[in-house]
UniProtKB/TrEMBL annotation:
Keywords: Methyltransferase, Plasmid, Transferase
Keyword Transferase: yes
Location of the Methyltransferase type domain: 39-133
Coiled-coil positions: none
Natural source organism: Alloyangia sp. H15
Keyword Transferase assigned: yes
Gene Ontology biological process terms, A to Z: methylation
Entry superkingdom: Bacteria
One Gene Ontology term of the molecular function aspect: S-adenosylmethionine-dependent methyltransferase activity
Protein name: Methyltransferase domain-containing protein
């Protein structure tokens, strides 16, 4: 399956807004000192880059991203002179050896085909004694806004199970993440769960991002026929928990991992 990652504004509504919350707590967990050179691999629309600028007093931040559409939005949003954005991917990061003191990647690692190569590249770009870290959604467990979607989709269409990110991305588990980081030669590897609230104002706020086609679950939804999509919408609307004001109160977990170069 090819995951469509075009349409930066649609991505913002789907997961960008939640990535910002998760990124803030991820950086709090890292607790890095001021004045570092940062690399943000798979920076997307700049959600994590923006959090680094706001909370970590960096000397510099380089955001690396393959999508020109995402890079354009990130560049419009973040104009801090310490930040630069460059096009590239995880398997060939366009930075020199030891160019960063802290290399991070948010919600991207599972989409990189050659993860061993990506970790080798992150380690290469990080100075000796520096930090390499990442976080990914807990697709199979507590990323509830996605988990609810796929559970409903599979109940109506058993074939959707093959597209479910909880099955497709076994690396999104603490044991797998720790093993990946250790196999890259990183030391002092640790993993932690970070939970955030993901409230939706109403059902339309929850449902509309799934119509964009941007990302695996929206891609599946957009590919359905009208009757199938309406059945999925109805099943979700019936099953999602709402408060008296119609808000949908869900939570999401990311798994965070770090190691020293």
């Amino acid at each position: 399956m090819m995951d469509k990652w075009l349409g930066a504004d649609a991505y913002e509504m789907y997961v960008g807004r939640w990535s910002r919350k998760a990124g803030r707590d991820f950086l709090g967990w890292l607790d890095m000192p001021d004045g570092l050179r940062w690399l943000d691999l798979g920076c997307g629309t700049g959600a994590l880059t923006e959090q680094i600028v706001q909370g970590c007093a960096p000397a510099s931040v380089t955001g690396v991203e393959p999508s020109q559409d995402f890079l354009a939005l990130a560049g419009r949003r973040i104009t801090d002179p310490r930040v630069r954005f460059v096009q590239g991917d995880g398997e060939t990061i366009p930075l020199g050896d030891g160019a960063a003191d802290c290399a991070v990647s948010g919600l991207v690692l599972n989409f990189i085909p050659d993860k061993d190569r990506a970790l080798a590249e992150l380690r290469r770009c990080t100075s000796p004694g520096g930090t390499v870290a990442a976080y990914v959604w807990d697709y199979a467990g507590h990323a509830q806004f996605m988990r609810r979607f796929w559970d409903a989709a599979v109940a109506l269409d058993p074939g959707a199970q093959a597209l479910d990110e909880g099955r497709r991305f076994p690396v999104c588990h603490p044991d797998a993440l720790e093993a990946l980081f250790r196999s890259a030669g990183l030391g002092e590897v640790t993993c932690a769960a970070i939970d955030i609230a993901t409230p939706f104002a109403d059902f339309d706020d929850y449902w509309t991002p799934f119509l964009s086609g941007v990302g695996p679950a929206p891609g599946y939804c957009a590919g359905l026929g009208e009757a199938q999509r309406e059945a999925l919408r109805a099943r979700l609307e019936q099953g999602l928990p709402t408060d008296p004001d119609g808000r949908i109160l869900l939570a999401a977990r990311v798994w965070a991992v770090r190691g020293s170069s």
